[in-house]
């Protein structure tokens, strides 16, 4: 369908009509049997998406709230953690961990690059007190897809936890919570899950659940123990975003019926198509190494250094109702990040290309 405003952004993305219809239904009560049934259905479907035998908790929060919840539940003040930092959201995990008094080390990489496995191995060999590794699966500020599985191989037989920000990485890329030895994965509704912002998801390994017992950081709303206890009763500990969870049930049914693998393939093909179309009109690809390009967005840089990115995105948004994201950080005036989530297809990319050519 054509939306009034087309979002070529890395989240939120346009919500498909059937899910919008589900979101518009009358509100139900979260302590009643109909909600309990939906929560049971949703939890089972989330486990299928995460590829885990563990329960997946639902928080009423943005993805950043879920990131904070992973820190306060799994660590204690003074714990040493390593952040594999490949962009803006690596910076965010550093900031959250420092706020709560953790000892934070960082392996920082140039934007557009992934991490060095050799450097991570060396750091762990030199720092045997590391309690956790925090990393971003798909770095939304750069479009880089970081290999989570390789880090899981390093931590699987140790007491070190692997915490992954999968907020933009889920659904449109392969993800195997159990097989990749992930200890905590956080995601949220407004990316690959085809929903508006407002809820987030957390899965925790048995190893991480044991570490919860020693955590001494303050928490009330984020206390995972409350969520586990109430989940056994088919309820949330606090009033949730009820309609978003009703919509989530519909969205997950669509995702699982279509197949996550099929979605991965379609988005990879669309990403490649978008890259080629933007190269045709005078843009270069920000990420040189194709093997680390994600399927959430296509980051491009104009060859014409005089092109005003801010003006371009403003005209697209206000004249044509096409919202395209600028870069972040040092690239805010130098980069376009073309989101390809939700129902965006090749025709939509062609339309966007035509509008950009008309402007520039």
Automatic annotation (TrEMBL):
Record GO terms (molecular function): alanine-glyoxylate transaminase activity; L-serine-pyruvate transaminase activity
Cofactor(s) demanded: pyridoxal 5'-phosphate
Residues recorded as bearing N6-(pyridoxal phosphate)lysine in the entry: 191
Swiss-Prot/TrEMBL keywords: Aminotransferase, Pyridoxal phosphate, Transferase
Domain Aminotransferase class V, chain residue ranges per copy: 15-351
Biological processes per GO annotation: glycine biosynthetic process, by transamination of glyoxylate
E.C. designation(s): 2.6.1.44
UniProt cross-references to InterPro entries, sorted A to Z: Aminotrans_V_dom, Aminotrans_V_PyrdxlP_BS, PyrdxlP-dep_Trfase, PyrdxlP-dep_Trfase_major, PyrdxlP-dep_Trfase_small, SP_NH2Trfase/AEP_transaminase
Highest rank taxon of the organism: Bacteria
Pfam families from the UniProt entry: Aminotran_5
Enzyme type, top EC level: transferase
Residues annotated for substrate binding in this entry: 337
Family that this chain belongs to: Belongs to the class-V pyridoxal-phosphate-dependent aminotransferase family.
Protein name: Serine-pyruvate transaminase protein
């Amino acid at each position: 369908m054509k939306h009034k405003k087309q979002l070529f952004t890395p989240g939120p993305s346009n919500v498909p009509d059937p899910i919008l219809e589900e979101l518009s239904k009358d509100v139900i009560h979260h302590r009643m049997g109909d909600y309990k049934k939906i929560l049971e259905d949703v939890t089972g479907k989330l486990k299928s998406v995460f590829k885990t035998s563990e329960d997946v908790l639902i928080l009423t929060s943005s993805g950043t709230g879920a990131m904070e919840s992973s820190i306060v539940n799994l660590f204690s003040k003074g714990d040493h953690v390593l952040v594999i930092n490949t962009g803006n959201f690596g910076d965010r995990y550093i900031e959250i961990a420092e706020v709560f008094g953790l000892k934070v080390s960082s392996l920082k990489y140039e934007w557009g690059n992934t991490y060095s496995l050799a450097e991570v191995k060396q750091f762990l060999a030199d720092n045997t007190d590391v309690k956790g590794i925090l990393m971003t699966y798909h770095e939304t500020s750069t479009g880089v897809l970081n290999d989570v599985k390789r880090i899981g191989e390093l931590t699987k037989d140790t007491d070190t936890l692997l915490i992954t920000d999968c907020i933009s990485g889920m659904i449109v890329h392969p993800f195997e919570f159990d097989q990749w030895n992930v200890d905590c994965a956080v995601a949220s509704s407004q990316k690959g899950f085809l929903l508006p912002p407002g809820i987030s998801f957390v899965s925790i390994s048995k190893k991480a659940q044991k570490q919860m017992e020693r955590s001494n950081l303050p928490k009330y709303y984020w206390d995972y123990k409350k969520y586990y206890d109430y989940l056994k009763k088919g309820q949330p500990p606090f009033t949730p975003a009820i309609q978003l969870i009703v919509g989530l049930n519909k969205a997950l049914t669509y995702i699982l019926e279509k197949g996550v693998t099929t979605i991965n393939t379609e988005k990879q093909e669309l990403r490649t198509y978008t890259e080629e179309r933007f190269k045709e009109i005078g843009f270069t690809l920000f990420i040189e190494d194709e093997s680390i390009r994600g399927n959430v967005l296509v980051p491009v840089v104009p060859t014409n250094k005089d092109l005003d990115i801010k003006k371009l995105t403003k005209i697209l948004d206000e004249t044509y109702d096409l919202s395209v994201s600028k870069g972040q950080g040092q690239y805010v005036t130098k980069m376009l990040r073309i989101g390809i989530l939700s129902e965006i297809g090749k025709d939509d990319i062609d339309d966007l290309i035509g509008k950009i050519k008309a402007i520039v």
